[in-house]
Amino acid sequence: QGRLVESGGGLVQPGGSLRLSCDASSFTLESPGLGWFRQAPGKEREGVSCFNYNDDKAFYADSVKGRFTISRDKAKNTFYLQMDNLKSEDTAVYYCATCWGVSTPTPNEYDAWGQGTQVTVSS
Fold this sequence. Notes:
By secondary structure, the protein is mainly β. The protein has no helices and 11 strands.
């Protein structure tokens, strides 16, 4: 299947922005969508977003709706997660992964993810 490679994480203050990238150029996409989930220490996996590349629809968790935007550069086969107005509760390791892309993301719809990138929101 190849690899998904995430990048773009880091430390940011509350209210700040980050853009995560997912390089899927060496990955064979066999699912309807590609998106992001996150995992914080001691917490369950949370679905964040999924982009269905069959109909170009994007889905978001309620906790990030209006603040995060998922997008795709078709030519580069790269997906992005623009994260604005970040909050401390957004702190987690973010993973790019295949997903279903049919409704609000669920924790179990993700499969085949990369190594993750750490996002820390702190003053």
